[in-house]
Amino acid sequence: MTPMLQQYLVIKAQNPDAVLFYRMGDFYEMFLEDAELAAPILQIALTSRNKNDEAPIPMCGVPHHSAAVYIRKLVEKGYKVAVCEQVEDPSTAKGVVKREVVRVVTPGVQTEPEALRDDQSNFVSCISLVGDRYGLAYLDVSTGDFRSTSVGSLLSTLDEFGRVSPAELLLDVEFDPGSEDQAFAVATSSVVVTRVGLSSFDLAQNAALLRKKLAVENLEGLGIADSPEQISAAASVLRYVMETQKNDIGHVTELRTYRLSDAMILDESAKRNLELLESLSRKSRRGSLIDVLDHTATAMGARLLREWICRPLLKARPILERLDAVEELAEGIALRETVIDLLKKVYDLERLNARVALARAHPRDLLALRDSFQSLPALQEYLLEFHSSLLKRISTSLDTLDDLGEMIAKTIRDDAPISLAEGGVIRKGVDPELDRYLDATRNNKEWIAALEAREKAATGIPSLKVGYNKVFGYYIEITRAHFDKVPPEYIRKQTLVNAERFITEELKDRETIILEAREKQTRLEHDLFVSLRESLAVHSSRIRSTAELLARLDVLASLAHAAQLNGYVKPRILDTGEISIREGRHPVVEKSLPPGEFVPNDMRLDMDGDQILVVTGPNMAGKSTILRQTALITLMAQIGSFVPALEAEIGLVDRIFTRIGASDDLFRGYSTFMIEMVETATIVHQSTPRSLVILDEIGRGTSTVDGLSIAWAVVEYLHNRRGRGVKTLFATHYHELTGLSRLLPRVKNFNIAVKEWQGNVLFLRKLVRGGASHSYGIEVARLAGLPRSIIDRSREILGELESCGLPELSGLLPGKTRRSAGSRSRQVPFEFLEKEPGPLEKRLDELNPDMLSPREAMHVLYELKQLLGKTP
Ligand code: ADP
Questions:
Q1: Ligand 1 mean position to 265 CA, how many Å?
Q2: Residue of the nearest CA to atom 9 in ligand 1?
Q3: CA 852, CA 861: separation in Å to the nearest integer?
Q4: According to the model, what pLDDT value does residue 356 have?
Q5: Which of 132, 310, 362, 444 is buried most, with the most CB atoms less than 10 Å from its CB?
Q6: From the alpha carbon of 731, which atom of ligand 1 is closest?
Q7: Which atom number of ligand 1 is nearest to the Cα of residue 618?
Q8: Coil, strand, or helix at residue 669?
C-alpha cells in the first residue's frame, strides 16, 4: 500500500458516511466504494489505479474547477460529500502532501449558489425529545436563519416540520417514533435523515454552546431557559453545521424562538391540497398560489413570500398592518414601481452575507454587496413618502450600510476577477507595498516591450514577439520563415507547427524577478482581501437586518402588484366567526381561463345557520373550485394579501383543514382510502370552533354504503363538535347527504347549478341554495367521450337501479362489496339499507360452497346466471 493510499484510508475512516473528494493536483479523486458509487451518478468513467495488480483499486475523478456541479449531483441524491484539500504546498512538502477535510456538504448544509434555489430556504433541522416534549430547531447556513420551537406531541411536531420542509433531519441514534411510525415515515419520506449522538451532550453543554454562539449571558431572553428540548435541538443543529463547515459560522448570531400558536398551522395536506407552493397535478410552481402572488424583485423577498404563505397570521393587528402597507403600495403605482426598480438592483444580501462570514465570498461577491448597498439611500428616501405604519417602520429602521459599501468600493477594483489566484483584485493606493509591486509590474511590462523592440531591430525579424505562458514562462517567438536569422545566443525552448520559441539569459533572469514579484503581489492581495472580508464579517448582523427589511418591503410590493394586476380587494378582518365573500374567485383557476370567463360566487359561512354547507352537484360542476377558493381567500387575507373578490369579510380562523381528492400516488404503501381516513381523523381530532374545514368527497375510496355512512357521521360530529360546531364546506356527490339538513340545524344544502338543455348538461358554475336533484354522472361521462353504447346501457342500468334500490346493485355488479346482513347498522337512516334481499341474494344465501361438488357448482352457476336474467 502506498503512503498516499494510507493517508486516504485514514481520512476516509474519519468520514465514513460521506463520499470523499480527495484532492490530487487539479482533480478530486474518489477511490474504492466511493468511486463505484459515484461514477454512475456523475456519469464519469470508472478506472482503476494499479491496473495490472491482482486487486486494482477502482477510482474516478472530477476537475477541481467544476467540482461544485458534481458535488451538487451527489447531494441531490441524498449523499454527503467531504471535500479534502491539500493543505500544504506540494512543491515543498516532504513525503505525502498533508491533506484535510475542509468542509462536508450535506443536503441540509449548503452554501454554493449553484446548489441552492434562490426562492427557497435550505434548512437542516433537528427533532429532540426531552421528557415528554419535542424540540424542533432548524438553521439555513446559507442565510443565517435559525429558529426553534417546542411542541407537545410528535404529530404536531411533524405538522410543523412539514410546513418548514427542511432538507435534512438530525435525530438521536436511539430516536423511535413509536406508535406514530406511519405518520413519521410519511412526513420524513423526502428528507435525508442523519442519526447523531444527541444524548452524548448534556443540558449544560448544550446551553453553554448556545450562550457562547449567540453571545448571551443566559437563555432566558430567548425564552428557552426552561425548554431543554429546544436547547438540545438548537445546540445539535449548531454543532452539526459547525462541524461540517469547519467554521464557527459568525453570521449565525440570533436564534428566533416561537410558539406554534403564533401562526396558523398549515399541515402538509393543506399545503398540498390548496396548491400553495406547487400544483397537485403537475407538481410544479405553475398553477400554485405562490406563482400568482410572486412578483418579488429579490431572492430574499421570494423566500420570505414563501414563508408568509406557509405561515398565515392569527392576530388582527399585524394582519391589518400588512394590509395597510399593501394598500398604500397598490395605490401609489409610480412610487411602487420606483421602489421595485431599486429593489431589483439588490443582490441576495442574505446569502452574500453568509458567504462573507463563512470566508467563502470572492471578489465579485463583494462587488455585488457594494452595488446592492448603493441603491439603499435612494430607496430609503422614497420610503419616507409612505404613511402606513409598517412601511414607515421599514424606512426608519433601514440601515443603508454606506460605510460598508465605501469600504468595499475603496479597496476592490471594479474589474476584479472572481478568483483570487491571479491578483488584480485590490486597487492602487490601498497599500504602499502593493503599490510598489504594481509599479514593478508596470516597469516589467515596459521592460519586456523594450526588449521586444530591441530584438526586432537586432535580428531584423519584424514578426518577432515576446510572450508568456503558464507552463514555459517567458519566450521569444520566431516564425519558420525567419529561422535562418535566429542569433546563436538564443536557447530553444519549445517547437510549434510554424514557429520556434526561445529564451535568452537576460530574459530568464528577468523572468525570475517578474514571477517573484507577481507571487508576492497575489499573496499580498489575497491577504488584503481576506482582511477586508473579515472586517465586513464583523458587521454581518447589520447586513442581515437590512436584508430582512428589504425582503419584507419586497413581499409587500409584490402583494400590491398582484392585487392591482388581478383586481383583488382589501378584505375586512373580523373578530367574529364569520366568513362572507361577495363575488369571490379562485386566484389560480381564474388565471387559467380567458378573462371574464370565471364565474364569481358568493359565499357565507357563520356559526349560526350557515355553518356547514353541503355542496352537491355533478362532477366537473365546480365544487372543488368553490371550496378551495373559500379557503384560499381566507388564507390570503391572513397573510396580509388582498383577495380575489368584490368584497370580503374574514373572521380569522385558527387553522384550515383540508381533505381533498385522491392522492394515492403520494405516499407509496398507503391506500387512497387509508390516506382519506387519516386526513379525516386529523380533522375530527384537532378542529376547533375557529377552524375552517374543507371536505371534498369523503369516502370515495370505499364502497358506496361505507362511504356514505362515514360521510354522514363525520358531518354529524363536526356539527356537534364542542357544542358549537366547526365551519365546514362539504362537497359530495352522494345527494343522499342533503337529508342531513333536515336533522341538523346548522347544516345547509347548496348545489352548483347546471341546466339541461336539448339533452345536454350546461354548467352554470353558480352556487345556489338547495340540494342537487340528481348527479348527472352519465351526462358527464358522455361529455368525456365514452362510447354511445356504454352511455345508453348506463341509462338503462340506472333506470333499473332507481326502481329496485341499491342492494340489488351490490349483488349485481362485480367488485362491489356486499355487506352481510349482520353488520347493517339499524341507525343508518337510509331507506335502501332496509330493503328485502332479492331472489339472487336469497339463493346465494342458501348455498354452502363446501358441500358442493364441482359438477353441482357448475350447475348452480348456470342457475344464478338465469336468476340474474341477463347476460352481460
Ligand atoms: P368538481 O369538484 O365539481 O368536480 P371542479 O371544481 O374540479 O369540479 O371544476 C371543474 C372545472 O370547472 C375546473 O377545472 C374549472 O376549469 C371549471 N370551473 C370551476 N369553477 C368555475 C367557475 N366558477 N367559473 C368558471 N369555470 C369554473
A1: 27
A2: 622
A3: 11
A4: 95
A5: 310
A6: 2
A7: 3
A8: coil
For residue 600, the CA-to-ligand 1 centroid distance in Å is 11
**Phi, psi for residue 65 in degrees, rounded to 5:** -75, -20
Closest C-alpha among 77, 236, 123 to residue 170: 236
Q: DSSP letter for 570, please.
A: P
Q: Atom 19 (ligand 1): residue with closest C-alpha?
A: 622
- Pocket probe for ligand 1: among 591, 601, 620, 752, the residue whose CB has the most ligand atoms within 8 Å is 620
Quote the longest CA-to-CA distance of the chain: 122
Cell of 756: 339541461
Distance CA 107, CA 80 (A): 7
pLDDT band at 190, cuts 50/70/90?
A: confident
At residue 134, the 3 state secondary structure works out as strand
User: What is the identity of the amino acid at 388?
Assistant: S
Sign, CA torsion 237/240/244/247 = positive
Q: Which of 116-120, 166-170, 483-487 has the highest mean pLDDT?
A: 166-170
- Residue 182 is predicted with a pLDDT of 83
- Cell 370567463 -> residue: 597
Q: What is d(CA 533, CA 364) in angstroms, rounded to the nearest whole number?
A: 12
CA end-to-end span of the chain: 77
Distance of alpha carbon 753 from alpha carbon 768, whole angstroms? 7
Query: Which residues contact ligand 1 via a Cβ below 6 A?
Result: 589, 593, 597-599, 617, 619-625, 765
In ligand 1, the atom with minimum distance to the C-alpha of 625 is: 6
Among 152, 132, 148, 126, which residue's Cα sits nearest to residue 686? 152
Residue to mutate (ligand 1; options 279, 586, 589; most atoms within 8 A of CB)? 589
Can you read off the three cell numbers belonging to residue 378? Answer: 435612494
**For 669, phi and psi rounded to 5 degrees?**
90, -10
Residue nearest to atom 25 of ligand 1 (CA): 598
Tell the burial category of 843 from Cβ atoms under 10 Å away from its Cβ (0-12, 13-18, 19+).
middle
What separation in angstroms does the CA of 414 have from each of 15, 283, 333? 41, 43, 35
* Protein residue with its CA nearest to atom 26 in ligand 1: 598
Dihedral pair phi/psi, residue 499, rounded to 5°: -150, 165
Residue in 281, 625, 700, 730 to alter for ligand 1 test, most ligand atoms within 8 A of Cβ: 625
Ligand 1, atom 13: nearest CA belongs to which residue?
622
Three-state SS for 503?
Answer: strand
> Quick one: which of 670, 744, 676, 743 has its CA closest to 710?
676
Q: What is the CA radius of gyration of the chain?
A: 36
Distance CA(706)–CA(684), nearest Å, equals 18
How would you classify the pairing of strands 256-258 and 145-151?
parallel
The whole-angstrom separation of Cα 424 and Cα 660 is 60
The C-alpha atoms of residue 353 and residue 355 are separated, in whole angstroms, by 5
> CA 153 from chain center: how many Å?
24
Q: How far is the CA of 621 from the centre of ligand 1 (A)?
A: 6
Would you say 18 and 104 are in contact if contact means Cβ atoms under 8 Å apart? Answer: yes
Atom 18 of ligand 1: nearest residue by CA position:
622
Do residues 651 and 604 touch, judged by C-beta distance below 8 A?
no
Strands 760-769 and 133-140: unpaired
Q: What is the pLDDT of residues 366-415, one digit of tens each?
A: 999 999 999 999 999 999 999 999 999 999 999 999 999 999 999 999 99
Q: Which numbered atom of ligand 1 lies nearest the CA of 621?
A: 3
Ligand 1, atom 16: closest residue by C-alpha:
589
Whose C-alpha lies nearest to ligand 1, atom 10?
A: 620
Provide the pairing of β-strand 579-584 with 647-651: antiparallel
Question: Which atom in ligand 1 lies closest to the alpha carbon of residue 619?
Answer: 4
Whole-prediction pTM = 0.83
Burial of 619 (0-12, 13-18, 19+ CB in 10 A): middle
